[in-house]
Design a protein that fits this description.
single chain; alpha+beta; Alpha-Beta Plaits; Cytidine Deaminase, domain 2; 2 domains; five-stranded mixed beta sheet; 9 strands; elongated; binds tetrahydrodeoxyuridine
Length: 279
């Protein structure tokens, strides 16, 4: 290793049912590539307690090697192959540095219909980052784990339920959890956090999306919202506006502590939206 720093990334990976052999073969190729190009060392560790769950551990030679690795088209090709058969929940302890725009963990979810990110697309054109170099595609989020809903599926509702447990709803006692799925399959959660002034309260949905934006995520697919009520709890008006602007026509899953209570499209909840296209 070129540096004395320990630079380690750990990604939690859930492999689709029936694709494990293929996945492990890709992992072997990935390990060989990292060694051959002297980016570092990779290993895939199986979670003995959870079928089809692995931890992809990467020991980087140094920060620059990690950057080069993420920008390497050979690596990106392998990563794209991974994305077809496995989903990365989150990555911890990664090297964080600005680099060239990368499409590191893009999967089929990233091929979004045009209006799905309209708020963001327009925003990026007008007031977004000055250059692509300021953006990172590689997720380094520290966050809660996801659980399996069905084979290889993301249990967004479960993540929202767990996030709800952290709600600080001292005044309303109405706890809400949200789990936002990014285009690369990462889940970023939020809960409502209240304030003695009441007005400074922030909803679970906005906590989730602001967290995600602050971690560099810019494309979103779904959000689950959970409250302990019989009737589903839809996002408030302020959250609809923010979700639209940054997430576009998201799929919205509403659930309570026991069951899913409905699926909507944000466009239906926010018809005739005001957004940057009108500025
Ligand atoms: N709240 C949310 O977090 N999300 C929603 O979708 C509706 C309302 C929060 C705000 C406040 O802390 C509490 O629920 C009662 O309004």
């Amino acid at each position: 290793m070129a540096s004395s720093d320990v630079r380690l990334s750990v990604a939690l990976v859930d492999v689709a049912e029936g694709r494990e052999v293929e996945f492990l073969a890709l992992a072997t190729r990935f390990e060989a590539l990292l060694l051959r190009k002297e980016y570092g060392r990779a290993e895939m560790i199986r979670d003995e307690a959870v079928p089809l769950r692995f931890y992809a551990v990467r020991h980087w030679a140094d920060a620059a090697a990690a950057e080069r690795c993420h920008a390497d088209p050979d690596v990106q090709a392998l990563t794209a192959a991974f994305a077809k058969i496995a989903r990365v929940t989150h990555v911890v302890n990664g090297v964080r540095r600005p680099g060239p725009p990368q499409r590191f963990l893009e999967n089929r979810r990233a091929s979004l219909e045009s209006d799905r990110r309209s708020g963001f697309d327009r925003r990026a054109k007008n007031v977004g980052p000055k250059s692509g170099g300021e953006r990172r595609a590689r997720d380094r989020r520290l966050g809660p784990r996801r659980v399996r809903e069905g084979a290889g599926d993301l249990d967004l509702v479960g993540a929202a339920r767990r996030a709800r447990e952290h709600a600080d709803a001292a005044y309303s006692h109405f706890k809400v959890g949200a789990a936002l799925e990014t285009a690369d399959g990462t889940v970023v959660t939020g809960c409502n956090i209240e304030n003695a002034t009441y007005g400074l309260t922030i909803c679970a949905e906005r906590v989730a999306i602001f967290k995600a934006l602050s971690e560099g995520h810019r494309a979103f697919t779904r959000i689950a919202i959970v409250a302990d009520t019989e009737a589903p709890t839809p996002p408030c008006g302020a959250c609809r506006q923010i979700l639209w602007e940054f997430g576009g026509n998201l799929e919205i899953l509403l659930a309570n502590l026991r069951e899913k209570r409905g699926t909507h499209r944000l466009k239906d909840l926010l018809p005739l939206p005001f957004d940057a296209r009108l500025l």
